[in-house]
Input
Amino acid sequence: MLDAEFFRRWMTATAAAMDREAARLTALDSPIGDADHGTNMQRGFRAVRTTLEKEPPATPGAVLTGAGRQLISTVGGASGPLYGTLLRRAGKTLGDAAEVSREDLAAALRTGVDAVSALGGAAPGDKTMLDALVPAVDALTGSFGAAVDAAAQGAQATVPMQARKGRASYLGERSIGHQDPGATSSALFFETLAATAAEAGE
Output
């Protein structure tokens, strides 16, 4: 079972990953976006880490809800509202439970992903973060490792796609041949989840 401490470690690990990969994410965003995805994610998750250290939430749901709220208030562009919506909706779905299972988390993240899809009007195949998130959440019902693999494959699969949503969609066919930065950061998000689970013996 996964408690609040597990979720805090997950968010801290995600902040470290966004620090480490900020330059790569921004490089991916440069040809098809505003060249700010890495710095936006770095800034947002640093703020999440700071908030969690100051006032550690007592439940898994509260960790995710607070992280989502922080991302929405800290990150500009589309990524803040989208990631914030994902985490807030998932956190609200988990409610006040002191511990949750991997299956509970998968179901909560599914609710969050559906909210992201509704907010952005996107679906898998549109070359967005959903191309990594949807298969990862589906695979999470099986195992943490399966979710990582599915997210990585989903991000890689965006390379030959033509973007149909977001800033990249303005480029038309010129968006083909570039990996979507949002899908890439989403894959990182599941990498840190699986790493946190491995450390906890889950």
User: Anything to note?
Assistant: DSSP finds eight helices and two strands in the chain. Strands lie at 2-3, 99-100. The chain has one domain: 2-199.
